[in-house]
Amino acid sequence: ERQLAARQSYLAHVKGQIRDLIAQQEAARRAASERAAAAARARLSSAASSVSTAGANLTGTVVDSGPTGGAPPSGHGDQVASLALAEQGKPYRWGAAGPDAFDCSGLVVYVYAQLGMSLPHSTYSLIGMGSPVDRSQLQPGDLVFFNGLGHMGIYIGGGNFVHAPHTGTVVQVSSMDSHGSYDGARRL
Length: 188
Fold this sequence. Notes:
This protein is α+β, with helices and mostly antiparallel strands. The protein has helices at 2-57, 77-85, 104-113, 123-126, and strands spanning 131-132, 143-146, 151-157, 160-163, 172-175, 182-187.
């Protein structure tokens, strides 16, 4: 009985250490997500003021879409990225499209609805919308797809995107490089 009590005490101690490590990892992940979101907000704010300054100085300018697979520049990408960032911390729930919970495509549907655009609630449908974009030409607001079209999010710049990952998580910012196989991007 003493050995059993000692082993149970040791097991409780180890479980406590595991809980502490998990909490530390989650705190580090949240902090990294918050830093990425803050950096994205700063980039978006800077881009918005640059665009308004450039717009005030240029009239009749033709914008070349460049090598983006034929995708014209997005006229609302910064606003889409900002709206998506505003949903951080809301829980993932399969099939949810806001405003209190989201799945990955539901987040996209909700954000674009704020701009008056009605989109289908399916990654498989969304991959066929808009124009394809080369990864090297991504702009805030572009839709990015992963894992055989099983997941998607909204690009916010700096190699990061906002998404609702899976059950037990919340809407968050992640690096595109750490999220699995990249399947492509679309600009609406």
